[in-house]
Amino acid sequence: MSSLNAAERAGRLLNLIPWVEKRGSVGASIEELARAFEYPVATLVGDLTEVVNLVTGDRYGLYGDLVFDVAVADGRVWVNRNDLLGRPLSVDRVAMVSAVAAGRAVVSQLPVDKDPDAEMDPLARAVAKLSVALGAGSESIEVRLRSSTDGHLEILQKAISEGRCVELTYHSYGRDVEATRVIEPHRCLYDGFWYLTAYCRLAGAMRSFRLDRVRKAVAVDESFSPPGDREAPMDGIPVDGSIPEVVLEVDDSARWVAEQYPNRGTEEVDGGLRVVIPVTAERWLERLLLRLGPSARIVEAPEGQGDALRRAAATRILARYR
What we know:
Elements: H1 6-22, E1 28-29, H2 30-36, H3 41-56, E2 68-73, E3 76-81, H4 93-107, H5 122-134, H6 152-162, E4 164-172, E5 177-190, E6 194-200, E7 205-210, E8 214-223, E9 245-251, H7 256-260, E10 266-269, E11 272-278, H8 282-292, E12 296-300, H9 307-319
Antiparallel strand pairs: 1-3, 2-3, 4-5, 4-8, 5-6, 6-7, 9-11, 9-12, 10-11
Helix pairs in contact: 4-5, 8-9
């Protein structure tokens, strides 16, 4: 099967996504899609996990949900579509400035063309046009991470601080199953979505839950003892130097990193904070560095996981738009 250009891939995705979405909880196998739409398997998986979720994901609160929620697991694909066409589209100034800030974060990591007469990159042109439309004040932004719209985050955070168990009703998207279980909540983290790590008594093991898939959360009159080893984070990620680490210096706007991710310590520095973060996966580090953009400086990193990784990720994402 020959390689596809950007236009061919876009055309196939536009036909493929609604076809899979109509199959509901059954989904479709990767091999089936590759044959039916003449789409190379490796390219298909990359486009579904990187392009679709990046382009249609509402990470900055413009719509209040995902346009498409694409899940890829065990060789199968499921698509859940949010019908935005049924609601009037409205983007306020704060949301527009957030989009501009996100675009600038990616542009700042792209290679700089030294030719002063060279054309601007497509993404840079788009950011420039939006900045002009916004006018004065587009250089500043107040970012607030949104919590669960149903108050689940607040309930879970209170239960964590009090050491109380929670009865959780959760929808497993890939299996299309909704179940109620009692959990011992340990930690809430934000990475595009809010996640909860907890000990699940139904499964008898640690589990991770995405909060927008929680249907109901009720604190029960039963307590639990949180992990006693404070050196080991509650989500099981070691902070003893046994896995690769990256040292970041973040400005005051990005101090949330130290609160939301396991770390091996922080130090106040001029104009911000130095934090040592364990790296569990290269793709996770890519997303974090792109999200932080110019608000973070890489002080130390394992070979291949510093500024070069951030630039390569930004270049790869931009190339998929061309």
